[in-house]
Amino acid sequence: MSKILILDGNSLANRAFYALPMLTTKEGKPTNVLHGFMTMLLRLLAEQKPDYWIVAFDKTKATVRIEQFAAYKGNRKETPDALRPQFDYLKEVLAAFAVPIIECAGYEADDLIATVTTKAEERDWNVQIYTGDRDALQLISPKTTVYLTRKGISEVDEYNEEALYAKYQLRPAQIIDLKGLMGDASDNIPGIPGVGEKTALKLLGEYETVENVLAHSDEIKGKKLQENIRTYADQARLSKKLATMLHEVPLEMDLEKFSYRRPDEAEFATVLDKYTLKNVARIWHQNHAENLDDSKEASTENADNQDNPETASSENTNTNTLLDGWPAKELNSEEWIQQLDNWRAAKQPVTLSYKITPGNPHWSRVLEWGIAVQKNTYSLLWAEADPAVKRSFASFLEDSEVSKTVGDGKALYSVLQNEEMTLRGVSLDLSLAAYLINPTRTKFDAVELVREYVPGYPDFSSLTEEVSALAQVADRYKETLEELGLTALLHQVEEPLSFVLARMERTGIGVDAEQLKSFGEGLTTELQRLEQEIYLLAGESFNLNSPHQLGHVLFETLGLPPVKKTKTGYSTDAETLEELKMSHPIVENVLDYRQLSKLMSTYVNGLLAQIKEGKIHTTFQQTVTATGRLSSTEPNLQNIPIRLEQGRLLRKVFQAPHKDWVLLSADYSQIELRILAHYSKDEVLSESFALGQDVHTRTASEVFGVPMEEVTKDMRRKAKAVNFGLVYGLTEFGLSRDVGIPRKEAKYYIEKYFDRYSGVKRYLAEVVIQAKEEGEVRTLLNRLRRIPELRHPNRNQRQFGERIAMNTPIQGTAADIMKLAMLGVVQALEPFQADVLLQVHDELVVQVAPEELDQVAKIVKEEMENAFPLSVPLTVECKTGRNWYEMEPFFTDK
DNA sequence: TTTTTCACG
DNA sequence: ACGTACGTGAAAAAT
Q1: Helices A32-48 and A84-96: crossing angle, nearest 10°?
Q2: Residue A464's domain is classified under what CATH number?
Q3: Residue–nucleotide distance: A548 CA to B3 C1' (Å)
Q4: Per-residue pLDDT reduced to its tens digit, A681-729
Q5: Spacing of A566 CA from C2 C1' in Å
Q6: Which of A323, A311, A295 has its CA nearest to residue A47?
Q7: Number of Cα atoms under 13 Å in the Cβ half of residue A198
């Protein structure tokens, strides 16, 4: 059976353009699309060895569809200047490479692709379509597979009928129904208002087609939804039609012209040179180096290309990225015990996976273990396992001599604590590895971890398949970590910290439920009073919690002047309301109501729901933030009120979980500005810290040109705002808004600041330049964050990238230092009656037996201050009290 | 699910 | 002319 590859030229070129950095020839011609497209093309050639191939392009004339619907693609953006000429360059390169292209005035690439697919299927060929456009999924059939690009173009997801069904529960023909219902903003296909992907899939799951959904609109639940479906029925039918690819483009095409031909070397070399596509040339030559010297290729190939005609591609040096199937062995109880003993004796490295009861791992139980050892896998059903096997397995897990690769060590350790077991010897935590490699990724489940290195959707039908896949990608993670210089950070900081965090979570923090309830009762009374007052002043009652309804009352009924708009209507946030305070007495009441209702819903009710046996156990997320900070969820204990007194009172309910122990809080003073001083080596800023001055007062003194004794409160307030802004990537707008001063004045302060702190100015400029060159920034511990925004065609995005470049090394280094400090503190406190309970970015909360407070405070302070020496001193302030509200300064003597 | 708002460092 | 300070998580409404 012959194989044809169909590439969507426009879609892939667009993807390549936005995915890759701006590359140019020495004359300045943009070439990033050429690089991206040709690299992909050569890879497909080597891996797929097509018999036929074709690249389809749109022709820029009016298309047939515009006649159907005037707005179609109406809001599509103008092609960027750097992209437009590359289409012609690309066609030139393709011609030199003997790759056939098709285009047809009045039709889109989509329609050409559909037409070629139909003809190829008639000949019983195998069809592979490569595009970034999900519309193409409608072409899937037993003979046709669609490959969608994923983040950039270097990786694709394979969709056949099964994969499509697994992901969307749709048949290929239903893709157009999906578009008909949900529309497509990028093509200005309207669909039905209020129907997004979720709703559309639900409807199609029940009614199969657009027509059938419309016919049964009276059965559909949801008043608004039903109404919209009726109102926009015609629009849905039209949208479906627009999404349908045309299979009958009136174009003579002889499929034989699409056959693969080896290019003329000289012609190809000339054009590669013309556009300085060195990398493409290198790949070409590498793939076509004589196969004499590649002796390392010995993979268990299961591809079905026996009847491949002679193609130009020889065996390439790529390693096979497909997963090997490792056998799953069955063991009885005796064999398990024996096997576990053997592995321990041989110190055999293993990969572990597990299935647990659903929900928060804090309370979950283990259902099954999956273990991979030396290309074999084993499954252990935990509930029905023999007690002797369980004991043996527990010893195996806690044997630190046995190296373990795991998907998520913290969650595993958490669950194990429910089983009275522990975990030692974790030598690779794949989630943490993946996080360090890309701290902005969001998914860390096994499928996603494997997918990083295995194209397509790995589909694990058993735990043993999952664990074998994890084991097989582990080495790839190690290589990448090495390449990026992240190995030490992983093994010396993140992995050990994960166990510290798991223990903190398990210890929990004490919360007095009764006190919290009575606090809530007080709030309820006050909230009811405010609510009545507001309705009286408004002359009507409404849902005060609805920004929409509140906006209506304030700006329509009462006629207050609108200040700011959101994309859906009037803005009613605190900043807006502050400005309106003078206009109407209702505004102040609304502000008070907002503040109290926040306390009531998020804190009183939210926390009450989380109390278990007098304690709250948060989850610290270690793979969430882009900068390396931790985050805290279910509940978030890193945003307990403190700034306003009414909220701060809430802290009274937090106490040491251990009876009669007290809380100790230790927080870094100005850690981010100290890091800025360290990085910038600025003389004034460094001196300020070396002398132990109040840094905001010193800044005010410099900016306003007065001695420190003459700095007023207002000057200090403004200088403090400048210092805050610096860390975020100072802007005039931000400073003026925060301090409530005109832009002009903000600009003046910034200029003055940079006059006096020229080292800071130089550093911030340099960090941006370097970030632009390298596309990434690093922290002091080498933590990495890539900043693709710096190369984004949109200027706002680029400026956002610049602020990230200024902020991340600072915020991230602060996070690094705190993590090191936590490891030091926990280790140093081992002999004491004390536990670390919480981390709030620059603060640690510890519980301690009162008689050991002196010693413990001293240790915590010293460990934190000396966690990582900077060119300026780090200082830590300790406070102590019976709860998190009544904290009094605590001085340790040296 | 998305939007708005607001709590923290 | 536009849309801006950096990093988070949760609740409620509207869809």
Answers
A1: 40
A2: 3.30.420.10
A3: 11
A4: 999 999 999 999 999 999 999 999 999 999 999 999 999 999 999 999 9
A5: 15
A6: A311
A7: 2
